[in-house]
Amino acid sequence: MFEALSEQPADKILALVAAYKADPREAKIDLGVGVYRNADGQTPVMRAVKTAEKRLWEVEASKSYVGLAGDPGFADVMVDLILGDAVPRNQIAAAATPGGTGAVRQAFDLALMAKRDVRIFVSDPTWPNHLSILKHMQIETIPYRYFDAETRGVDFEGMMADLSVAKAGDVVLLHGCCHNPTGANLNLSQWQEVSALLQKTGATAMVDIAYQGFGDGLEEDAQGVRLLARDLPEMLIAASCSKNFGIYRERTGLLMCLSSDAERHSVNQGALAFLNRQNYSFPPDHGSRLVTMVLQDPNLRADWTHELEEVRSGMLSLREQLARELKTLSGSDRFGFLAQHRGMFSRIGATPSQVDALREDHGVYMVGDSRMNIAGLNAQTVPVLAQAIVTVGV
Predict the structure, then answer these.
(1) Is there a single domain that holds both residue 16 and residue 77?
(2) Within the chain, what is the greatest distance between any pair of CA atoms?
(3) pTM of the prediction?
(4) What's the domain range around 383?
(5) DSSP string covering 221-252, please?
(6) 100, 163: one domain
(7) Which of 45, 111, 176, 305 has the highest CB neighbour count under 10 A?
(8) Quick check: is 161 catalytic?
(9) Are strands 234-240 and 252-259 parallel, antiparallel or unpaired?
(10) Is residue 53 included in any domain, yes or no?
(11) Pair (283, 174) in one structural domain
(12) Residue of 69, 75, 127, 323 marked catalytic
């Protein structure tokens, strides 16, 4: 039977990682991989997480299963972190998942379970895995305009026009903050307009929030999702702890299903548990246990918040430095958007041939659509990158 299988397309980012590793040049810069790295090129274990891990080792007495939806304590702390008091807790069903990707997949599955012909509206562009999963699941996908290639900001007028045709039974997928791959975010007034449009059309919002704390701060980055949660009768939220807790390999995520009717809670919670059972039974617990310990302990939480703020401000400083360097070298303000974008990523607007030239002539590796990971830089490599960008004529 396996002779019917066909070759699958290679993952472009993983192929880029392999090419970077094979490049013998010492002066090379990796801006392709979607993982946070510090100035030394490392993805460190955060101090609070390390402390929690030591404590867990001392007290953990069993590795038995926790439950189909994971530890309720993890759901509680994550709901508080993301939603605050926006929605009563008894209106929020939640289940732990293997990373944010698992939460996204389960959200699509839940939407499909609720409506077999569901349509998902997805920003153009979006995280490639969104599209890959939707294609694999054979769910109809409708792109909506999002990124303005000229201004490198949000094409909000185009976005609203495209979303105006959504209707009840459709799902609109939104990035909670730090849009991947563009770095261009909605402001609060735009979130309010999106909320009003969703109320008018009856479409269901789904928010993928993978970078809370990487943009403007923990509270600021949650403003959009909290606004929608207050305004809308139902909503899906797929959350990841990979980035803001630095626990990528622990695969720690959460899917939330919100309803304005508290009586729906048990049905929604049962559906989430059912889907976990069908896909992988019990979710991982180690990472979620660490997150719970950090968020429940005032000292660990304070240390984690402080370190996360250092990460955020460090990336913002790199953005501002790169924008300044490019302004000096190019003699124009056309790269000012870099200081306005948030999170790890930005699209710089290079053509595929310019991306090739950056890689071949300057050892600068970025995705073919010119998405680059700001966290792949440090203060010393920023001037090198700026010179390369100007040299190839971006």
Answers:
(1) no
(2) 63
(3) 0.96
(4) 11-45+310-391
(5) HTHHHHHHHHH-SEEEEEEE-TTTS--GGG-E
(6) yes
(7) 176
(8) no
(9) antiparallel
(10) no
(11) yes
(12) 127
Whether 210 is catalytic: yes
Residue whose pair of structure tokens reads 């703020």 in the numeric block: 309
Active site residue 127: yes
Quote the number of domains for the chain.
2
Would you give per-residue pLDDT tens digits along the chain (394 residues)? 999 999 988 788 888 888 999 999 998 999 998 899 998 989 999 999 999 999 999 999 999 999 999 999 999 999 999 999 999 999 999 999 999 999 999 999 999 999 999 999 999 999 999 999 999 999 999 999 999 999 999 999 999 999 999 999 999 999 999 999 999 999 999 999 999 999 999 999 999 999 999 999 999 999 999 999 999 999 999 999 999 999 999 999 999 999 988 889 999 999 999 999 999 999 999 999 999 999 999 999 999 999 999 999 999 999 999 999 999 999 999 999 999 999 999 999 999 999 999 999 999 999 999 999 999 999 999 999 999 999 999 9
30 lies in the same domain as 82: no
Q: How far is CA 63 from CA 94, 280, 289, 293, in A?
A: 22, 17, 12, 17
Q: To which residue do tokens 């622990």 refer?
A: 250
The answer to whether residue 4 is catalytic is: no
